[in-house]
Amino acid sequence: MTGDESIAPSTARRLLAALARSQREGRLPSAVAGVTRGGRLVWTGGRGGAGGSTGGTSGGPGGAGPEPGPDTQYRIGSITKTMTAVAVLRLRDEGLLRLDDPVENHVRGLPFGDRSIGQLLAHESGLRAELPGDWWERVPGVGWAEFAQRLRADDVLYPAGRRFHYSNVGYAVLGEVVARLRGRAWFDALRDEVLVPLGMRRTTYFAEPGAARGWAVHPWADLVLPEPTEDSGAGAAAGQLWSTVADLGRFAGLLLGSASAGGILSPSSREEMAEVTGVDSGRSRRGYGLGVFSYEMPDGAVVIGHGGSMPGFVAGLFVEPAQDTGVVVLANATNGGSNDVAFEMLRIMREHEPFVGPAWKPLEKVDDEALALTGTWYWGPSGLGLRLTADGELVATGLGNPVRTGRFRRDADGEWIGREGYYAGEKLRAVRDAQGTVSSLDIGTFVFTRRPYDPSGPVPGGVDPEGWRPLY
After folding, report:
1. What is the count of structural domains for the chain?
2. In whole angstroms, what is the distance from residue 128 CA to residue 135 CA?
3. Locate the DUF7586 domain: which residues (predicted)?
4. What are the DSSP calls for 335-357, one per residue?
5. DSSP element (H, E) containing 397
6. What is the mean pLDDT of residues 406-424?
7. 363 in any annotated domain
8. What is the rounded end-to-end Cα distance, in angstroms, of the chain?
9. Which of 134, 317, 311, 146 is nearest to 240 (CA)?
């Protein structure tokens, strides 16, 4: 079905064909998907049968039960981590923690208390991947006290910040950080601060009646086996939740910065989530930020989001910011290609429903101070052009032999701060002469003057008094 007629029927057909192929070739008992544009669900489709309730009181194996729709619940596994990351970043935005805080500041007695909150978020803490004890996804979880007692010094596999190593343990700890700073259970805080404001009322800790049942599919026969759906206990913040295409479409709007998600997370924190800090050495096009993966597609498109899996379920939630598009794919099988079909759907939208984008508009008012910084500047012989945009940013572009480029934005104190690339976090400072005219720029101690090696500018090391000359 289509949730909105803003996409062409031919595009809807392509999306459904991609989902149908994934369900058929992946031997998924059921699969459901949705596509968002501009924070709205514009297409949904389902294949197969959801297989009855998780309690086993209705439906049967395989294709039994109704075809899934946008409100059918599935377990979403590690997409839960992205929601946990939002809860942690809200604490940071409120000044209740810093990303470089040692976790010991908030949860005492851990054998890796020196690891920082940011390292846990980015999977750079060096902690083991899985929770201690039996195969945690298939057995009842334990409470925090028992979980903490199970942790050992040898749960630390790598030095802090040394490499990306995916860790469910780290996100279990982050859930406890949220609980302690909010004074209530991790899920209660997440529900009240994120899920309810977004209208995600079908995103729950336990499955609700009518949720899809989880199945394992036999590798060599078209047979299925029911999978357990246990409470993860202290590990819940790493992969417990159940949700729907409709709800996760709303969460995609948060990742894309849609107006309907305003106020839940600061724009700077949302951008920071997508900034890659760790690179998965096993995958050349995959990196990790703070709670989300970042993928570079073969055609150069950049996609961010998270996959998820728990026994009986796979899930994918990915957005392409440049296209203002999100895709959600949910299925009830232990193994499946939810990420691949999500990427395929984003490609279909990119090629057949390209994002038009807003119309260009000029600045609403003149900013003389910012205008004085625009134009051509030189770092030695290398040229840089600074342009002031309607949203108040300075965009640096290379000229000739280009220097490092990027964007600068004023912070709350009026300082110009780099937003990307080499100059991310660095200050752009205007240097004025005795008459108050901007004579040069200082960007992280690099001096830019209006002329190449301007002898009247504060060029470190000085400029030869004879100036530019022929070589011979």
Report:
1. 2
2. 14
3. 366-450
4. S--HHHHHHHHHHHHHHHS----
5. strand 394-399
6. 91
7. no
8. 75
9. 311
pLDDT of residue 283: 60
Mean pLDDT of 383-405: 89
Shared domain check, 322 and 228: yes
Measure the CA–CA gap between 411 and 427, rounded to whole angstroms.
Answer: 10
Give the span between the Cα atoms of 97 and 34, in whole angstroms.
Answer: 35
Q: Say what the pTM is.
A: 0.90
List, in order, residues 6 or more apart from 457 with CB less than 8 Å away: 439, 440, 447, 449, 450, 451
CA distance to 120, 254, 287, per residue, from 325 (Å): 28, 12, 20
Residues 323 and 388 in one domain: no
Give the CATH number of the domain where residue 377 resides. 2.40.128
Cα separation, 91 vs 190, in Å, equals 11
Flag whether 470 is in a domain: no
Distance CA 327, CA 338 (A): 10
Domain boundary residue, one of 288, 323, 352: 352
Task: Note whether 37 and 112 are same-domain residues.
Answer: yes
61-83 in b/e form (b: 16+ CB < 10 A) is: bbbbbeebbbebbbbbbbbbbbb
Note the pLDDT of residue 173. 97
To which residue do tokens 């570079």 refer?
296
84 and 214 in a single domain? The answer is: yes
Q: Is residue 403 part of a domain?
A: yes
In tens, the pLDDT along 212-269 reads: 999 999 999 999 999 999 999 999 999 999 999 999 999 999 999 987 777 899 988 9
The residue type found at 319 is V
- Domain of 32, CATH number, reads 3.40.710.10
Co-location of 268 and 343 in the same domain: yes
E strands within 109-266? 215-217, 224-226, 242-243
104-135 pLDDT, tens digit per residue, is: 999 999 999 999 999 999 999 998 888 887 77
Only one residue has tokens 């690339």, namely: 421
Two tokens, residue 253: 């709007």
Q: Which of 317, 352, 387 is the last residue of a domain?
A: 352
**pLDDT per residue over 138-178, tens digit each?**
788 899 999 999 999 989 899 998 899 999 999 999 999 99
Q: Which two tokens stand for residue 109?
A: 């007695």
Residues 298 and 329 in one domain: yes
Q: Name the percent of the chain lying above pLDDT 70.
A: 95
Residue 57 pLDDT: 34
The pLDDT assigned to 386 comes to: 96
Say if residue 4's pLDDT is above 50. no
Are 118 and 290 spatial neighbours (Cβ–Cβ below 8 Å)?
Answer: yes
Are 347 and 387 members of one domain? no
List the domain range (segments joined by +) for residue 60: 9-97+104-352
